[in-house]
Design brief:
Sulfite Oxidase, Chain A, domain 2; six-stranded antiparallel beta sheet; 15% helix; 23% strand
């Protein structure tokens, strides 16, 4: 469900990986209508804007995935319904539906509208229990060491997308610059606007597969998928993958996130990862 906190497009939405700052719950971002290819231009990402490549693997529903994710879904489905009713929102598309565009089929789930902030004005902050609080604008972000990885995306609804190609920066790079105080135990990842957030222990935010992604499928990360910046945690279900990340707050305690406050567990591991 990204981050995907997972935050969303247009009306209040259900996130990816449902229970998403996503997709929130795997994704925290989405639009009532799929954005066109023209809307996913170079300005959609914080980093360089490479040419878009071939689509990643398709959405798959498998018995194994359903068994792995089913328990979490059963536990959280009532919370999802309650959350949607509370916000007067609706699913961006039917459960399991996919929006097929040049980025391939990738269901979009969100609870918040897509931020109306130009990518060139997007900033990311690192604060809380750190030695040196950071504020990174686009120029500072573009100077950071980058990483790329291909990973499956798992939603708590029981679907997954194979071989998603992400590009961005490891959160550990930012944490190293800021200097994490010894008493810090958690990273609270905030989506734009401060509504959607999720907490990760330090070992997960520093995991070698975790990244702050600004590209998807070799092209700029589209707003509906969390652009210009989203958290990607391949070893956790979608709702821990916060979209539209604008702040990482280091803390000595857990801050309960949107879906977690509605019954989803703080730890949402993808079994076998």
């Amino acid at each position: 469900m990204d981050d995907e906190q997972d935050a969303a497009d247009g009306e209040r939405r259900i996130p990816d990986g449902r229970p998403s700052t996503g997709e929130a719950a795997g994704e925290s971002a989405s639009s009532a209508e799929a954005e066109s290819a023209a809307e996913a231009g170079p300005a959609d990402g914080l980093g360089p804007a490479p040419e878009a490549g071939p689509a990643y693997g398709s959405v798959r529903y498998t018995r194994r995935r359903v068994l792995i994710l089913g328990a979490a879904f059963v536990a959280g489905v009532a919370a999802v319904i309650a959350g949607v009713k509370a916000f007067g929102g609706q699913a961006v598309d039917k459960v399991g539906g996919a929006i097929a565009d040049q980025f391939g089929p990738f269901p979009v789930r969100s609870v918040d509208p897509v931020p109306d902030v130009p990518p060139e004005k997007w900033v990311v902050k690192v604060d809380g229990l750190v030695d040196t609080p950071l504020t990174l604008d686009r120029a500072a972000w573009s100077s950071l060491q980058r990483m790329n990885e291909t990973a499956d995306f798992h939603c708590v609804e029981g679907w997954g997308v194979d071989d998603v190609r992400w590009g961005g920066v490891a959160p550990s790079v930012l944490l190293e610059q800021a200097g994490v105080k010894p008493e810090a135990k958690y990273a609270i990842v905030h989506a734009y606007g401060g509504v959607y957030l999720s907490t990760l222990p330090l070992d997960l935010i520093k995991h070698d597969k975790t990244m702050l992604a600004d590209s998807l499928n070799d092209g700029p990360l589209p707003p509906k998928h969390g652009g210009p910046l989203r958290l990607v945690v391949p070893v956790q279900l979608g709702y821990k993958n916060v979209k539209w990340v604008e702040r990482i707050e280091l803390s000595d305690q857990i801050r309960t996130g949107y879906w977690e406050s509605n019954g989803y567990p703080e730890d949402a591991p993808v079994l076998g990862s």
